[in-house]
Specification:
Bound molecules: zinc ion
Strand content: 15-25%
Strand order of the largest sheet: 1-2-3-5-4
Radius of gyration: 16 Å
Number of helices: 4
CATH topology: HIT family, subunit A
Shape: globular
Length: 157
């Protein structure tokens, strides 16, 4: 069984549990990268490609992304929110919702730039590798962020 399907079936614990679940999609915090607010949104159904999503799933994914991006933009240090699908590690279709914080931009770090321009794909990959951890649930900033997102979601209901 894939990791996303085990999350959906409650067989894998997540930092802070599920942030959102309905009959089509789930949203949770990334499980192993210390970037507060780095979220993953997936359809409940195990599909491996965007082209396999139904219209109803597409709409649910799009709305879920919009809500989460809006919440992340309330944080003063978030300058942009990247939305990516890569699918190289996990076959279950998903989007990464990745906040780009002000503190991530280090002009002296050549690993973040291509031809002197900030390279979003490189930045995403750099911080995913650099901030990888197996103890995410013990990091106060992560738990604080999860609580913040949950409270924002409650305000919307
Ligand atoms: Zn799956």
């Amino acid at each position: 069984m894939c990791i996303t399907c085990s999350v959906i079936e409650g067989k894998k614990t997540l930092p802070g549990g599920l942030l959102y679940k309905d009959d089509r999609i789930i949203i949770h915090h990334c499980i192993d990268v210390n970037v507060p607010g780095y979220l993953v949104i997936s359809p409940i159904r195990h599909v491996t490609g965007y082209q396999e999503l139904t219209d109803a799933e597409l709409m649910a994914m799009a709305k879920g992304i919009k809500i989460m991006v809006s919440i992340l933009h309330k944080l003063p240090d978030v300058e942009k929110v990247y939305i990516l699908n890569l699918g190289e590690e996990t076959s279950h279709f998903h989007f990464h919702i990745f906040p780009r914080y002000r503190w991530m931009i280090d002009k002296s770090n050549v690993a973040l730039f291509s031809a002197e321009k900030l390279d979003g794909a490189k930045l995403f990959s750099y911080y995913r590798n650099r901030n990888k951890t197996s103890e995410l649930e013990t990091i106060p900033e992560i738990n604080k962020m999860i609580a913040f997102i949950k409270s924002q979601l409650q305000c919307m209901q």
